[in-house]
Amino acid sequence: MSQPAYSVIGTRPIRHDGADKVTGRALYGADFQMAGLLHGFVLRSPHAHARIKSIDTSRAEAYPGVKAVVTAADLPESSDRMVDIGEGETPLSYVRGNVLARGKALYRGHAVAAVAAASLHVAEEAARLIEVEYEPLPCVLTAPEAMLPGAPLLHEDLHTHELGEKTSTASNVSEHFRHVMGDSEAGFAEAEVIVEREFSTSTVHQGYIEPQNATALWNNDGRVLVWCSTQGSFVVRDATACVLDIPVSRVKVTPMEIGGGFGGKIPVYLEPVAALLSKKTGRPVKIVMTRKDVLEGTGPTPGSFLRVKMGAKKDGRIVAAQAYLAFEAGAYPGAMVGPAGMCVFASYDIANQTIHGYDVVVNKPSTAAYRAPGAPNAAFATESVVDELAEKLGIDPIELRLMNAAKEGTRRADGPKYRRIGCVEVLEAMKNSEHYRSPLGGPNRGRGVAIGFWFNVGLPSSCTISINADGTANLVEGSTDIGGTRTSIAMQAAEVLGIPVDRVNPTVADTDSVGFTAVTGGSRVTFATGIAAYEAAQDVVRQMRERAAKLWSVDPDTVEVDRGQYKQNGHSMSFADLAARIGETGGPVVGRAAVNPKGVGGSFAGVVVDVEVDPETGKTTILRFTSVQDAGKAIHPAYVEGQMQGGSVQGIGWALNEEYWMSKDGAMMNSSLLDYRMPTSLDLPMIDTIIVEVPNPGHPFGVRGVGEANIVPPTPAIANAVSHATGVRMTRLPMNPPAVMAAIWSKG
Amino acid sequence: MSSNVRVSTTVNGEPAEFLCEPRESLLECLRDKLNLTGAKEGCNDGNCGACTVEMDGRIVTSCLVLGVEAQGASIGTVEGLARGSALHPLQTAFLEQAALQCGICTPGFLVAAKALLDHEPDPSEDRIRFWLATTLGRCTGYDKIIRAVQQAAREMREVKA
Amino acid sequence: MHSFDYAAPDSVSAAVSLLAANPGARLLAGGTDLIVQMRAHRREPGLVVDAKRIPELSALTFDSGGGLTLGAAVACWRIYGDAQVRAVFPSLVEVASLIGGTAIQGRASIGGNLCNAAPSADATPLLIALGATCRVVGPAGERAIAAEDFCVAPGRNALADGELLVSIHIPAPRPGSGAHYLRFIPRNEMDIAVAGAGVSLTIADGVVTAARVALASVAPTPLLVPEAGQAIAGKPATEETFALAGEAAKAAAKPITDMRGTIEYRRHLCAVLTRRALTAAARQAQGVH
Predict the structure, then answer these.
(1) pLDDT(A204) > 50
(2) What is the Cα–Cα distance from C61 to A730, expressed in whole angstroms?
(3) Are residues B63 and B101 in the same domain?
């Protein structure tokens, strides 16, 4: 299919916020300063599970320099109310309970109290004077353990939703769901080769370099002003209002620059606490998490236990698949096992499937989204089993995937039928890559491949575009920019307006200044806020045609527009010339759009990876890595590559070293960036990228969100490569050196 | 409480003075007393490199330097990289190579990379990776950062030649 | 962090007086361990004494016999930045390049690494293998402590109240000798040794005449393993011989199981790392690159 020629789309302009970010001028949340600013420090539970019998703050309050202390007693009483903030309906009591523990501490690192003082050091010293009387309780740390009869219960009032029905059983299982398509037992009866294995993955963290932060001022007019680094300023507004039980109109959130999020900066932790401290002191209060707070007190992604069984005919056709998924939600329900259940076989066209999912609370931090949440865990299992099937069948692993690949019209077990998707194209690109066709070379080496799927979401976005007399445009949007989306959104407006992108000046506005815009997440910003910018720019074009028509005294419908040139029967004017005359043709031109797009695409990604395993130490070295992804249409190809490379390396870290190393009593033993071991530049080769473009019919330029699918295939691809290098199938993440060595030893 | 100490130092070539408690880090002093917030706090224990600055010609993690130790020292931060309105070649290369996404690690990488190129104008890819392993990034997978440093090194050598 | 006082004396005697008068005071060299420990409330000294304005602690000098005296506060970068050290003690240069990352090496010192007395200290096994001695000065005068006797327990060294480490002396390498330190870490930088082996050996006519092996991270302190050296003295300098030293190191190791590795894995690594480090040291000794 030939694609339209674009002027701006597909180019690689320098980002609008670039100069600020290379000179150190860009202001992130922790950089915020204000006269009279106080510093807050949060006291956290040292126990993974404990009843809070009493909290005595008197010594802290009396400490010189301390201005206020707050605990859960300063929050409104909780009710059964459900709230929708960011990622679906949640009981308000859970949101509040996670902000400041009430009654029980449910994980080590759970916020219990907070102090505001003139200096951070004084606040920390005072926090150590708060006397909390705990009654330690037995803790449960994994899903299988927490599901056992008689396991210690985190929430006495948590009753299992069993296949859609609320039961009366108090349990750590908040939900059990099932997706069924066809008859998997009959499918297995028909299968000639069957592989079934159990897998587990450790809790891992998004690992953004900037800790959570928030500054709040409970102003004398009753409004709460918040400055913070967040993936969704409206989520912070709404969540803060809910937690404090005040109207959303009383909260204004100004998003500062954000230093990474990957899903982890959607929940609120500090904003309501800073607001409470501000209310008590009448002064602005800033709280910045320590790295230990980040690892122990914010939401990582779930650890999981999975069992996957797949059966195929000798010709390679996969005829049946079953999955059992038990995910650790952490302290409160919401383990992202739902998306895992949708994604576990999403890359394949399999007639007979049964999928069981369990959302299980454990005494670890309440989990949050992390780049395609749930899908990497699921793909680790499925893609390992597919790899083993390929081995047993004697079929090339990419060929086997191609034979069974999902296509337009394929139905997933959770219901939806795919529209146009790029699964086959991604596999073809992997197969035809120079990497896959090159020899592996050398002993102790292995090559692995895997594919994976992740959605886009739509959700609301708002945008306005104001035209300046010098032919430029000011674009205001509400999606906080984590990776260059100001520019990828401005590019879409520039394409419509027919002007260079450096003539569009994008701004991410506060919640008072732009219409509601959902989170930067779900691979949605370039897609959905892009559509908002596209529509707002179309609105500008409509108005500019009217202005041209007025100048030429013609019918606006007869004015044609071609790449920023306005024409009518011999008349012709550039966008810039027309902009210079908007004053005399009726005044300001402001385009606006508020959208909630439904034409989401979804993206497939694949990995080819070569590894070498030191047979004496078990250490895996990534020799070569190729990431392939369907971008629909790459608006800014360098940013698409950047997403692919970043997701790939997070996947490499997840595969090889990252994990929450928990003591038996629920303490994270490696809560520092020294011991959490994210990859450094020295641990990696260049990350090669192949962008596949199968346009999404639901976006005017064909965009598919690219932020997430790229993290899905790395872990199984590396597991498959390590398995081929060592001859041992790796079924647990991370595959760190001691684990690989133990596997090699077990082989004898 | 220990009393404040007066510290006289040089920051980005200009004399600078501040009062600090001995327990305050150089990072805190730069950010809170001199309003130089380009250096970031990512871990406060020397393991992320977001607070990297130059001190007497060597890179250090400013979270692991006491403010009082800056007495008489010469400090270089990301704010001192550009010469007036002209960006440093590394800054330009980071923009052209799209070597930043969220940008929080960028100041640390720029300061560290500048120190490398000041000492070694033609480092190998492996040498760049080794040198920059002191700084963690989470968005980019480092690929475009390495390429940006290679580009800047090339351009700086050409200017010298 | 707790509140403390700071002093920056300019002589060893002034530092000794300050340390003696302030029990619990800590010496600050690069601060890359001390500041982290204070921030985590693991150490809360009332006085921090900056070592870096004392000339002897910041000096790096070679004596006429070719031995190196390394001031306790000399930062790692000065070691690999010194042409003579690079020529005479390549193993020291390697260790200085793998402590922390390059920004840590802008501050961290070998003396500090030793005084911090972590079982996992990277420099200490090499200092032991090189036969280094520590010059210590205190209220009662001066004494020398062998590197292998300097650490006494995790986080505890042999310094008495009021004493400080002034410098480390490393004897000139003998002809036909080589040394090497090898550690195992899951990442390639910025990591703590799961196990490490520092070795030195002398080879004459293809035969090992003497060898010293010391281990990191497999005992409460860095561990000299005399049996490993004895196992290979008089034997041909081959990989098979070095494997014998590896087995002796493995037998001597007394590791624990923790998040960095199991007992079994760490003991196994001792054998592998000792063999590999001796192989590398032998190449150096025999002038093979």
Answers:
(1) yes
(2) 52
(3) no
Indicate whether B43 and B64 sit together in one domain: yes
Choose among A636, A656, A626: nearest CA to A718: A656
pLDDT tens digits, residue range A480-507?
Answer: 999 999 999 999 999 999 999 999 999 9
C185, C154: one domain: no
What's the complex ipTM?
0.98
Task: Say what the pLDDT of residue A88 is.
Answer: 73
Among chain B residues, the shortest Cα distance to C35 is held by: B64
Number of domains in chain C: 2
Q: Is C144 exposed, middle or buried (0-12, 13-18, 19+ CB in 10 A)?
A: exposed
Q: How far is B98 from chain A (nearest CA, A)?
A: 6
List all chains that touch chain A, counting a touch as 3 or more CB pairs closer than 8 Å.
B, C
Whether residue C148 is contained in a domain is answered as: yes
Give the CA radius of gyration of chain A: 27
Q: Which of A708, A704, A686 is nearest to A695 (CA)?
A: A704
- Asked if C269 contacts A617 with a C-beta cutoff of 8 angstroms, the reply is yes
Residue C81 lies in a domain: yes
Domains and CATH numbers, chain A: 18-26+458-595 (3.30.365.10), 32-137+210-259+265-297 (3.90.1170.50), 304-456+600-747 (3.30.365.10)
Cβ pair C184:A617 closer than 8 A: yes
DSSP A19-52: HHHHHT---BGGG---TT-EEEEEEE-SSSSEEE
Predicted TM-score (pTM) above 0.80: yes
Quick: pLDDT tens for B122-133: 999 999 999 999
SS percent in chain A: helix, strand, coil, step 5: 30, 25, 40
**A129-174 confidence digits (pLDDT tens):** 999 999 999 999 999 999 999 999 999 999 999 999 999 989 999 9
Q: Indicate whether C162 and C181 sit together in one domain.
A: no
DSSP A192: S
Mean pLDDT, range B96-123, rounded to an integer:
98
- Our count of domains for chain B comes to 2
Task: Supply the range of the domain harboring residue B51.
Answer: 5-80
Contact B25, B43 (CB under 8 A): no
A125: closest chain C residue by CA = C2
CATH number assigned to the domain comprising residue B29: 3.10.20.30
Statement to judge: residues C240 and C269 lie in one domain = yes
Strand pairing of A473-477 and A504-508?
A: parallel
* Containing structural domain, residue C251: 177-285
- The residue of A202, A209, A290, A616 whose CB has the most chain C CBs within 10 angstroms, and thus the best one to mutate to test that interface, is A616
C39 located within any domain: no
- Cα–Cα distance between A574 and A581 in angstroms, integer? 11
The answer to whether residue B112 neighbours chain C at the CB level (below 8 Å) is yes
Least CB–CB distance from B46: residue in C36, C40, C48: C36
pLDDT exceeds cutoff 70 at C289: no
Cα separation, A438 vs A432, whole angstroms: 10
B105 and B61 inside one domain? no
Name the residue among A34, A228, A203, A38 with its Cα closest to residue A118: A38
Provide DSSP, B97-160: TT--SS-SSHHHHHHHHHHHHHH-SS--HHHHHHHHTTS--SSSTTHHHHHHHHHHHHHHHHHH
Mean pLDDT, residues A404-409 taken together: 98
Residue A1 has pLDDT above 60, yes or no: no
Question: What residue type is assigned to position B108 of the chain?
Answer: G
Query: Shortest CA distance to A502 belongs to which of A487, A518, A520, A523?
Result: A487
Pairwise CA distance, residues A451 & A348, whole Å: 10
Best CA proximity match to B40, nearest among B120, B136, B121, B126: B136
Is C31:C175 a contact under the CB 8 Å cutoff? Answer: no
If we measure between CA atoms, which residue out of A268, A289, A294 comes closest to residue A97?
Answer: A268
Neighbours of B72 (CB within 10 A): 11
Residue C49 inside a domain? The answer is no
